[in-house]
Amino acid sequence: MKLYNTLTRSKDEFLPNEPGKVKIYTCGPTVYHFAHIGNLRTYIMEDVLVRALEYLGYDVLRVMNITDVGHLSGDSDDGEDKMLSGAKREHKSVMEIAKYYTDAFFRDCEALKLRRPDVVRPATECIPDFIAMIEKLLADGYAYVSGGNVYFDISKLDKYYVFGEHEAENLEVGVREGVGEDVNKRNPADFALWFTKSKFDDQELKWESPWGLGYPGWHIECSAISLKYCGEYLDIHCGGVDNAFPHHTNEIAQSEAYLGHKWCSFWFHVLHLNTASGKMSKSKGEFLTLSLLKEKGYDPMAYRFFCLLSHYRKPLVFSYEALDNAVSAYGKLRARCAALPSGGDCTGETAGALRASFTAALENDLNTSLALTAVYDVLKSGLADADKRALIEEFDRVLALGLTDPLPSEKEPSGEEDGEDAEIRRQIALRAAAKKEKNYAEADRIRNELAARGITLIDTPQGTTYQR
Ligand code: AMP
Ligand code: ZN
Questions:
Q1: Ligand 1 pocket, CB under 6 A
Q2: Which domains does the chain possess?
Q3: How far apart are CA 87 and CA 65, in angstroms?
Q4: Which band of pLDDT confidence, cut at 50, 70 and 90, is reported for residue 171?
């Protein structure tokens, strides 16, 4: 598989450290607010990456943190902890909002068929690991204590700006416009590992440490949690592109200083979801959530489909018009796939050729839109209908679009439902089955009979609903 690697700025052949096994670390959400659909774009593409690696035969271990302390507003080390500002906004404790937004995040993940990483660790549960790592960095001369805080000394490294494209003068923390220089730092780009002093004295959660009562910096979380669960050699580190600097740059600085050798070979960055007015961002306060899309009647799966239509390395502009187009294409595709009969197999030559083009798309830097084209190619192919379904079900292990799931109207009425609603849903299911068998006379009879009772059927790309 070829993957674009931000570290080398080229598409490289992906080779894990241990044959057949892949260790992936993902920066998790900062749980001071709902995830917006931009954050979710990143997690959707990471989910497809993991599923694609598994489809290609790798055994994947995926680890993710939950940032519930230390992520400060702005890149400077003197901003307020985002968790604290979230708690103030909602008049709740930090742990209350952490729990609330962590649960909300995983509900969104479930609705989008994002598989839960094998290990999920909130930062607040790993404080001793951060302290141990900082102690070693101090002992080895990579860190220093100043003004009550512990800082990483970037001058101790041969190369700090590993992702290259950042102009050091513009990006050095503390010298940007509007950001006051932290006088405790030896070099403007040094960053905090542990705080005991900040101008925000009301930091709610603090822990005992060799440097006094305080709290960790954001970057140390990801280094320590990744090292703990993935070991000394990480295969792929993921995140949104905004994390490349300073967050991932600082993670590399700390981890490699700590280990004394190269840490992670591949850096997988997802480009942003933007609106007409720029990057969607939580801190700007104006953003779209999955719940809002659901309230407006959008199926979360249609948003997943929308994301898969474009390449993860291209910025994606969100508009309702573009989403509506995706809804319609997804609905049509799903209806075609769900109508295919089961019981087929996909072992023949034609299936092999179709599989080869699907695999080639994944292996070419996770080209999801070409992978979707392979699904349409299956539908157009000369395969028997049941074999088409079998092959699409196989591809859907990676795409996870529920392509062959029964349409809502065809689902068996649930046991809890009784009375007239259940009866109508049964009629709708019978009508759908009649249509599938091209028995339009029967389908019309059911529609007319319901209409005579004052029940109007509405056919949508997602299936049939009704109105009294
Ligand atoms: P946060 O919850 O702010 O820590 O961000 C969670 C993830 O979403 C990180 O990997 C970010 O890089 C990513 N992210 C933030 N904004 C966007 C955006 N507009 N589009 C795509 N990914 C984003
Ligand atoms: Zn991180």
A1: 27, 29-30, 38-39, 41-42, 67, 239-240, 242-243, 270, 272-273, 279-282
A2: 2-270 (3.40.50.620), 278-399 (no CATH), 408-467 (no CATH)
A3: 20
A4: very low
